[in-house]
Amino acid sequence: MKKVWIYWVLGPLTLAVALALFTQTGEKPVIKYFPIDQSKAFESFETALEYDAEEDEDEYKVSWKVASKSSSPVYLRQDVSLLYVNGRLKGVVSKWKENTDVIKKETSLHGEDSQKYQAVSFHHGEVHEGENGIKSMQATSKDELYVIDSPHSVRSAFKEPETEEEKEWKQRLDHSIEQQIEAQWQELMTHYQVPRDKYTAVALTELADYKDKPFPGTSEADSERIKGQLWEGLYKNYVLGISDTKSSHPIQSYIPLILFDKDGKHLLVLYEDDTGKKHQLIQYY
User: Fold this and answer.
1) Labelling 274: which of 20, 143, 164, 251 has CA 20 to 30 A away?
2) What pLDDT digit, counting tens, does each position of 157-181 carry?
3) Between 73 and 29, where is the model more confident?
4) What's the domain count of the chain?
5) In terms of domains, do 106 and 177 share one?
6) In a domain? residue 10
7) DSSP 87
């Protein structure tokens, strides 16, 4: 098997968790990639964002659920999910259990004004099979929700717009969010002198779109390994940094940008934390 070297280059993280949404079960959870176990699979896995209930005239509630079920109990199961509101990180939930097949986690948060909610989750299993060594199972899921809360219209929520008014609100929110995110991504690429034409850009929240197809510039045979190693690095360097923060700032980090090298040799992860510090992670295939 080809030997793979992975290098993660970064500075210290000082992100804060808005609404105290970081949750973990156990002492020190870890996501570690091992070769994929072809005999194991997820029977189901999902991320779900739902408009839950009206709180009052000014606030509403959004339910954020993460769940997965493997075909049989495995040594270690873990799900981690990241939530972005209008393109900015607002919370992370992580739950792990030993010798189980089911992971479920539900969190609710209060919202106000018109918002676009996006969540992306990584579902992971660590399989121990004695002499056969340690293997992995993995899946990625996502969901998004628009909540329209304006003095000029009745409060509503949707995943796909149906009425003309919903279509207009979706276009308005998407355009505003994309402008802000693109401006930061461009600033990051300029800072790290990254030639965009040499890469295929994918937002972190879009990783679940590659469930049945390889990442850009990678082969189908290598894509699952690259995906597992990518999430291993993201969890260690991006997610766990959130739980260790001593900052009192609300989270301001925009959705990270993942850049896949068109020559199929490496990928980059670029993002800026809530203090304005820029980070670049590099993963060689």
Assistant:
1) 143
2) 999 999 999 999 999 999 999 999 9
3) 73
4) 2
5) no
6) no
7) T
Looking at the fold, whether 179 and 229 belong to one and the same domain comes out as yes
Assigned token pair, 253? 């980090």
Q: Please indicate, yes or no, if residue 32 is contained in any of the structural domains.
A: no
Among the candidates 160, 187, 202, a domain finishes at 160
Sign of the CA dihedral 74, 47, 175, 87?
A: negative
Question: 130: exposed, middle or buried (C-beta count within 10 Å: 0-12, 13-18, 19+)?
Answer: exposed
- Reading the block at residue 274, the tokens are 């809530």
Exposure string for 255-281, b = 16+ CB within 10 A, e = fewer: bbbbbbbeebebbbbbbbbbeeeebbb
pLDDT digit string (tens) for 57-69?
778 999 999 999 9
Both tokens of residue 108?
A: 């609710």
What pLDDT does residue 29 have? Answer: 65
- Of 137, 160, 183, the residue that ends a domain is 160
The domain containing residue 64 runs over which residues? 42-160
